[in-house]
Structure formats: structure tokens, C-alpha cells
Amino acid sequence: MTSDAAEVRRVIEGHNADAVRWYAAGDADSLADLFAADAWQMPPNAPPLVGREVIRAFWKNALNWGSWKFEFQTQDVAVNGPIAVERGKYQLRFTAKPGVTDGMPSLEDRGNYVVLWRREDDGEWRAVWDAPVSEKTLVVTR
């Protein structure tokens, strides 16, 4: 169980690469397992998702709305014992499935994010607070 900043950054970047793959594959269970049981995911322009099981349920539904293509670029990681804070940039391209009416329209987004990570009792680093901040003005038309 390391708290070496370079090693923790490698772990976090590995988790981010997994997340990109799991969003694209529609794997909500694996995505949810990146989060602590008491996690908060705070998406732009939406109420927070509180708790791993709420995050899992949201993404099981949202991944059926269409194709999610994320890119994450870690810019900095600060580590203090079992806590790490990641700052980075993201890009998202969401393509809605034709005929899906309970989801959202296709969109592209980019922005910055901060994630608070915690090393759990099992030695895994999991996201506790995930806060993306969009750089774009959201315009939704139906």
C-alpha cells in the first residue's frame, strides 16, 4: 500500500483508462466499483449521485441512452497518506441512440475535473468525490 505520489498517479491513470474502456463498453458494474461506497459523483448540470449503488443504477440506465466516449488527462496528483487529489481535463462525446426518448441529446463537452481518491481497507484507490466542471455552455434542444 503505497502513498508515493508517482505510484499513486500511475494507479489513478490506470483507473481512468479502465473507466474510458468501461464507459465505451457499457459496463456500469465495473465503473461503479471505481467509487467508494460513500462516493459523490457530481456531473455538470445535474444533481449529485450519492453512493456507489446510486452511481451504478444511474450509469446502468445512462449507458443505454447511447455511446459515451470519454478522454481523461491527469494534470496533477497530490497525495497525503490514504488520500489523493487528482486534477485534470476531460473531453466527452455522447451520441444518442436513435429513438431513445428518456435519455439526452447527442453532445460534445470538455472541461476540468477534480477527484478525491481514498485508499480503502482492501488497498484499492477509489473515487470519493468526482467533480467535473464543463468549459462549455450547455445548450439543449429537443
Largest beta-sheet details: 6 strands, mixed
Span of the ends, CA to CA: 49 Å
Stretches where pLDDT falls below 50 for ≥5 residues?
none
Rg: 15 Å
Brief digest:
The termini are far apart. The protein contains three helices and six strands, in the order ααββαββββ.
Account of the protein in words:
This protein has one domain: Nuclear Transport Factor 2, Chain: A. The protein has a six-stranded mixed β-sheet with strand order 2-1-6-5-4-3, with helices on one face. 26% of the residues lie in helices and 43% in strands. It starts with a helix and ends in an 8-residue tail after the last strand. The protein is α+β, with helices and mostly antiparallel strands.
Please specify the SSE layout and strand pairing.
Layout: H1 5-25, H2 28-32, E1 35-41, E2 49-50, H3 52-62, E3 66-80, E4 83-96, E5 107-119, E6 125-134
Parallel strand pairs: 1-6
Antiparallel strand pairs: 1-2, 3-4, 4-5, 5-6
Please name the defining characteristics of this protein.
six-stranded mixed beta sheet; single chain; alpha+beta; 3 helices; 142 residues; Nuclear Transport Factor 2, Chain: A
